[in-house]
# Entry
Amino acid sequence: MSSTTNLDYKNASLKGTITIPGDKSISHRSVMFGSIAQGKTTVSGFLLGEDCLSTIDCFRRLGVEIHVEGTNVTILSPGMDNWEEPKEILYTGNSGTTTRLMLGILSGTTLHSVMTGDASIGKRPMRRVSDPLRLMGAKIAGRENGQYTPLAIQGTKLKAIDYTMPVASAQVKSAILLAGLRAEGTTVVREKEVSRDHTERMLQQFGASVEVENGVVSFKGGQQLQATHVNVPGDISSAAFFLVAGAIVPNSEVMMKNVGVNKTRAGIVEVLENMGADLSVEVEDDKGFEPTATLTIRTSDLKATTIEGNIIPRLIDEIPIIALLATQAEGTTIIRDAEELKVKETDRITAVVTELQKLGANIEATDDGMIIHGPTKLHGANLNSYGDHRIGMMSAIAALISTSPIEIDDTDCIAVSYPTFFDDVKQLLNS
Ligand code: SPQ
# Structure
């Protein structure tokens, strides 16, 4: 347990423009792909969050030279086939994306490696990745037959599989596709509900040929990636906190430029629109590998909604902050089909419901989501982040509308995805 933060925002109002830091999912992948490709890859707009720094650290241990200057990153790689066998354990910190995608990448090398992360990573399921990788021939050992870290990987020759995803997960899909890079044959991944597609887009950006049709991704093994430049847009999952804040804090207007609005990530925009939020979306770039937009949100009269089915993977990380939004909407909001929340940095159904109840919200947990009756005035309390960045930020945004101060235990975890979060809150309050 670390830093406790006491937040006392009386009569808050948010005004101004903020720059949302780089997308976490794309930043991770830029380092992974830049390390796989031989030569020099440059990245701009990189997220300096702890999770992405863990990814950089892992690749440095594999002999990849990586320089970070502000949000610009230069990757000088000997290419995946020339990586060094790591002498130390690869430490993935709090990052599920690093752990699961690295598992796929390392499986197809000739190297022996061991990966581990923090206490939260030690509880997150890895069989969802190690099982399909083993079908490809991967040699992975770990606690409970490869379910939990530490994981030991003996790289080996892989063969392609045709895999139907049992859960909607971009991490599982990406791990299989990345293993498919060095597999013999064509790897096929079938999704019932489409999850974020940054891996498919970036494979193409690095010169690979990938087919995507009706939720089926096909990718021929043995392709060499070509080093390139990656421009990382602002992270919609981070923007989500200020989209909600702008909608629920009185007298507010918040503008965010250069936010990634890839359809497989932007479910929160649809939810805000369905709830009647005063939101404008001005598309800036829809030609590049990742589309971007300027988002402007103003204080809104909100009505309840139902969130279920195939939108869930497109907003899975935004559900904690959407739950707070729903406490301020007229009527009953239902969130279902979101059982994946239970295997994130913490059980996000239990954490969200417990913490919002402490503030006086009328919210109950269900097996696969939550039910929220609104609107309710929220009051102060002592909250726990459970070491989960998204729960920490949801709690801090709640403080902007609570009638008395909110104290949050362990806000250091916010640095995992949004190290400048409190600076941006301050900037909007002072504008
Ligand atoms: O990397 P990590 O710890 O798994 O991060 C989270 C988050 O809230 O930042 C989930 F806890 O985001 C995942 C997301 O939930 C990032 C991700 C990706 O980059 O591929 C995919 C999603 O996970 P999943 O399990 O649905 O594939």
Summary: The first strand starts at residue 4 and ends at 7.
